[in-house]
Amino acid sequence: MTGKDIERDNGRHGGDNTMRDKPTPYSKRDEAAVSKPPDTLCGEEERSTPLTEIATGLKRREFLQRTALAGGGLIFGQRLLTDGGTTRLDQVLAVVPQAASEKVAVRLRVNGSNYGLRLDPRVSLLDLLREQLDLPGTKKGCNHGQCGACTVLVNGRRINSCLALAVVHDGSEITTIEGLARGDELHPLQAAFIRHEGFQCGYCTSGQICSAVAMLGEVEQGTVSHVTSNVRREGRVELTDEEIRERMSGNICRCGAYPGIVAAVREVNGTERGA
Amino acid sequence: MEQKEERDLEMKPFAYTRATNSQTAVQAVMREQTAKFLAGGTNLIDLMKENVEQPDRLVDINRLELTRIEERNGGLRLGALAKNSDTANHRLVRERYPLVSQAILAGASPQLRNAATNGGNLMQRTRCYYFYDVALPCNKRQPGSGCGALEGFNRMHAIFGASQQCIATHPSDFCVALAALDAVVQVEGPQGARTIPFADFHRLPGDTPQIDTNLKRDELITAIDLPAASSVFAPRSYYLKVRDRASYAFALVSVATALEVQDGTIKQARVAMGGVAHKPWRAREAELALSGARVNEQTFKRAADAAMQGARGYEHNRFKIELGRRAIVRALTVAAREGRTA
Fold first, then answer.
1. Chain B environment of A94 (Cβ under 8 Å)
2. Which CATH architecture has domain B232-336?
3. CB A104: neighbour CB atoms within 10 A?
4. Nearest to B110 among A94, A102, A247 (CB)
């Protein structure tokens, strides 16, 4: 992040020059190719991945580093958020004509850490997370909004990150699979997926879990679904297996681990941190 | 690795503008012939990844204050930027226009409905495989290149209102309910605001299949109005969707039905179909057959026959004619039972 970028951020968000400067700015990234082992579906590495890593999207060492850093980021994040909702952006941003694919300043809070970025507007939220923020737990399946492997929470709501331009979500709070656990304590859904073998290869799992986390919240809010018998009736819909299957239908599992997924969701439904 | 990172950047470069009000958004699109509005992006971004859509500028309208759902003239005004999921679950939509909730919830996935907006739903483009694949001929994508579906694989395609130029279908569920309930589309353009009755919003392909709607390029949908009169159907309406999977698939055939019944006689009826035409297909012949008739299976069969009279199948989609007939009978039966499926 350059000094100029920080200045601009200060102007918009009301002063926070202690923002953690984690990701390499996009321009530097363009010049220096970073080589990492590919995140393949059936590579040697994934085949030997322990179950907890599948359910959390993290290798243990990375996980501990991340959570330590995230603890620091959280304080600044809270300060950032108290500056107000989306209206502050409306007040400042105007229609500024820009040249084709000119980079755009974007601020995001991801798993409790704040990022100031300059992005090509073509970059999807999915590619940003995986390729630039070093958060490969979110998976790229179809890249066309058909499989759900890329599901993340944006301001608490589940969306397909492959069909979301990162620039559109300026000012948003993102939660990925890496952000669900509390320290060493797995999110109840992560633990339940392991207990009920809600996966085989594990590729769809981070999307399944993020989706399930949001889904249980939606149920708490009294939402209806395609299989709800009477949408006119108010109140919480009973989460039958049929409801779980319909509400999780945006996440495809090619291994067919659906019985385990339904069992995991059923178990967590209604428990303390399920929502 | 480098190649993978570049994948999304294969999209043609475009400039990005974040609009703060509808006027500046309209002006930004008006100024540039190849600029487009960007709302939820669930269809547009996908089409850009496939190079089917290649705008030079995206005008991001997501910060515009068009997300409200509110009462208006006894009906409901659905903000163009309200998310599909919020619309389907809005208390007043569920209570007064349950057909709208049912139709939205029958489409896409929870993740997509959380991103997709009401206005964007109206603007989504066909899922015809020939339209999506830039290596194949398609008069809608590239006028004059021919229609690959006409004599190709046309299982998903239209049985009503098609032309020699295009037999694509409109993919929306939401729009089928809006057609049935006589919704009105509010738009804003460089010359100010105007309204478009829902039946006039989408077009049949004719000789210009590249033009999906009667909305001008620089006009912006600001809201969709559900008229007060259509809330009379709330107790007896039903959206039936028939598809290849139980969930998360486009309709082969869908039917939106709504009945007003008094003492066993149908006072008025609405029937609209999805997956059968280039636009949400209002089956007015069926409505005429239902109006004034007794509520029974014979009436519903007669209405279904009337609806399917003008249908024309192609090599792989002839099944839709019988399927459509049965789906209409089924949907009317459930609607008449106040939503009970058995």
1. 20, 24
2. 2-Layer Sandwich (3.30)
3. 23
4. A247
Domain assignment present for residue A146? The answer is no
Q: What is the pLDDT of residue A74?
A: 33
> Inter-chain contact A231–B105, Cβ cutoff 8 Å?
yes
Least Cα separation, residue B6 to chain A (angstroms): 9
Residues A226 and A173 placed together within one structural domain of the fold: no
ipTM reported for the complex, 2 dp: 0.96
What is the residue type of A73?
Answer: G
Q: Are residue A171 and residue A253 in the same domain, yes or no?
A: no
Tally of domains in chain A: 2
Residues of B in contact with A168 (CB under 8 A): 38, 41, 60, 62
pLDDT in tens, A117-176: 999 999 999 999 999 999 999 999 999 999 999 999 999 999 999 999 999 999 999 999
- A249 falls within a domain: yes
Judgement on whether residues A201 and A134 belong to the same structural domain of the protein: no
* Yes or no, beta carbons of A121 and B14 under 8 Å apart: yes
- Residues spanned by CATH 3.30.43.10 within chain B? 2-60
The per-residue DSSP string of B28-61 comes to HHHH-TTEEEESS-TTHHHHHHTTS---SEEEE-
**CATH class of the B69-124+169-229 domain in this structure:** alpha beta
Q: Do the beta carbons of residue B205 and residue B179 sit within 8 Å? A: no
Statement to judge: residues A103 and A24 lie in one domain: yes
Residues A25 and A112 in one domain: yes
Closest-CA distance of chain B to residue A264, Å: 19
d(CA B205, nearest CA chain A) in Å: 26
With CB atoms and an 8 Å threshold, state whether B16 touches A104.
yes
Domain boundary among the residues A124, A152, A179 is at: A179
Q: How far is B81 from chain A (nearest CA, A)?
A: 14
Domain boundary among A120, A150, A179: A179
Residues of A in contact with B15 (CB under 8 A): 97-102, 121
Cα–Cα dist A160/A261, whole Å: 19
CB contact under 8 A, B105 and A225: yes
State the residue for tokens 């980021």. A73
Assign a CATH topology to domain B2-60. 3.30.43
Three-state DSSP class for residue B237: strand
pLDDT in tens, chain B (342 residues): 444 445 566 799 999 999 999 999 999 999 999 999 999 999 999 999 999 999 999 999 999 999 999 999 999 999 999 999 999 999 999 999 999 999 999 999 999 999 999 999 999 999 999 999 999 999 999 999 999 999 999 999 999 999 999 999 999 999 999 999 999 999 999 999 999 999 999 999 999 999 999 999 999 999 999 999 999 999 999 999 999 999 999 999 999 999 999 999 999 999 999 999 999 999 999 999 999 999 999 999 999 999 999 999 999 999 999 999 999 999 999 999 998 877
- Judge: A38–B4 Cβ closer than 8 Å, yes or no: yes
Token match 């501990």: residue? A64
**Cα(A120)–Cα(A101) distance, rounded to whole angstroms?**
6
Task: Answer whether residue A196 is part of any domain.
Answer: yes
- pTM here? 0.86
Chain B contact for A101, CB < 8 A? yes
Chain B residues near residue A246 by CB distance under 8 angstroms: 246-247
In terms of residue numbers, what domain contains A15? 3-31+51-85+99-140+166-179
| CATH 3.30.465.10 intervals, chain B | 69-124+169-229
| Integer CA distances (angstroms), B325 to B215, B283, B311, B314, in order | 32, 11, 10, 17
Question: Residue A210 class from Cβ within 10 Å (0-12 exposed, 13-18 middle, 19+ buried)?
Answer: buried
Distance from the Cα of A159 to chain B's closest Cα (Å) equals 4
